[in-house]
Each structure stands twice: as C-alpha cells, then as structure tokens.
Amino acid sequence: MHTPPPQARRTTRRHVPATTTTELTPTPHRKPKIYVVMYTTWGHTKTLADEIIKGIEAAGGEATLWRVPETLGADVLGKMHANLDAIADVPVITAENLTEADGFLFGLPTRYGTAPTQIKAFWDSTGGLWQVGALVGKYGGLFHTTATQHGGQETTSLTFLAHYVHHGILYVPLGYSCPILNDNTEVLGGSAYGAGTIAGGDGSRQPSAKELQVANWQGKEFAKILAKTV
Ligand SMILES: Cc1cc2nc3c(=O)[nH]c(=O)nc-3n(C[C@H](O)[C@H](O)[C@H](O)COP(=O)(O)O)c2cc1C
C-alpha cells in the first residue's frame, strides 16, 4: 500500500503550534519580509509581480520573487508555447520557504475561474506546516491574470482563499484604496481582491499602464500594512 510522505499526510493537528501569540510580539523598525510567489505560463503574471515588487520596495519592504514548481512536462509546455524565458531567473519555492516571510502575495493566472493546478499542488505540499501552525498569523494577498475581462479574477481569489483560511493566514485585500479601480473608461484587470491584468485569448495583450499602477499600489499598501505589524 502506498504511504504518503509525512508532509503530504493530513492527520489531526498536533497541539504544538510553532507560532504563538508571544512570538508574534512586534519588533519595531524591521523591514517586512514579503515573498511574491507566482505561477505563469506566458509571462503576464510575472510582469505584474515585478511591478508589485517595485511597490513593496518603494514602501520600505524587502521583497523576493519566487515561482511554484511546474507540474507540466517540457513537451506539453512546448505545445502551449510557454514563455520559459520569463521565469528563467526566478527561483522555485519550497513549502518551508514560506516560514521565512512575514507575508506573501500569490500571483494566480486563472484556470476555469480558479487557481492553476501548479498553485494548488504547491499548497497541497504545505500539510506539514499546517500541522504545526507554522503560517498562523502571517499575511497573504493575491493578484491575477485572466484571458478576458469577465474570466474570473474574483472567483479565482474567492476559491483560493480557503488555503489562507485553513493555515490561519490573514488575508489582506486591496479594497478600493486605489482610485484606478473605479475607472470605467477602458478595459482593466484588477479588483478589490487584488491587482490584475487581462492577457487576451491569444496572450497578445500586455499589462496596461493603469494595471501596472494598481500592481505597484498593491505592493506599497501590502508593505505598509505589514510594516505596522513586524
Ligand atoms: C486550461 C486553461 C484554463 C483557462 N481558464 C480561463 C478562465 O476561466 N478565464 C479566463 O479569463 N482565462 C482563462 N485561461 C487563460 C489564462 O488565465 C491566461 O492565459 C493566463 O492567466 C495568462 O497569464 P500568464 O501569462 O501569466 O500565464 C485559461 C487558460 C488555460 C490554459
């Protein structure tokens, strides 16, 4: 019989949380350490991530870009015309890396209105962290790419949120703090759930100037919120 490795095994949670309220006592004047973690096939989500990182750094945060492990083989990625150049220099994150950060911003290119399998598979590898409450009290935000305006940016956030909830990660929405989110004069990705872009069915549309401004804004706001807590 196949026995799953300990990290993948979901058993009753032990009553030995790694993070306690005492350990979360704020240490003043430390830069919040923020991991921007994404999956991308064609690069749009990476472009948003780069802009979010600029915002985090402008607000005094420390940002690192990561990608989740790929689950597709090279043959399939080749047939999909995946943009491998976009991720060539981006390190692959492990579940354990999440424990190092104060918060994360996950970039989700939509698949049928939900997060892609690659993101789900990564979170399915975090069972060992869940078991000891290693991510309790950390902060999490989200950003998105869809092919079309109504392709499911908000449903992707909503259906992803259970991961943060089960880990005890505090979700930080973007809200409507950024005025661009009220702009109806052009097609725009992004919502109260997080920055976003619209790639087009053939991937030819690139993040617009306004979408990048929203991404930058989200990075800044996220870093400012975390700066109050670390
Ligand atoms: C299997 C599959 C399902 C998809 N489902 C949706 C969808 O439900 N809504 C949508 O707007 N785009 C959908 N897309 C398009 C992708 O979301 C879009 O191409 C991607 O977010 C581009 O981001 P990237 O350049 O970072 O890879 C789908 C793409 C694939 C391959």
What structural keywords apply?
230 residues, six-stranded parallel sheet, alpha/beta, binds flavin mononucleotide, globular, single chain
Provide a concise account of the structure shown.
This protein has helices spanning 44-58, 74-79, 117-124, 127-131, 153-167, 209-227, and strands at residues 33-38, 62-67, 103-109, 139-146, 170-171, 196-198.
General description of the model:
With about 230 residues, this protein is of the alpha/beta class. It has one domain (about 30-70, about 80-225): Rossmann fold (3-Layer(aba) Sandwich). Helices cover about 30% and strands about 15% of the residues. Strands 1, 2, 3, 4, 5 and 6 form a six-stranded parallel β-sheet that branches. Helix 1 (about 45-60) packs across helix 6 (about 210-225). The chain starts with about 30 loop residues before the first strand and ends with a helix. The mean pLDDT is about 90. It binds flavin mononucleotide.
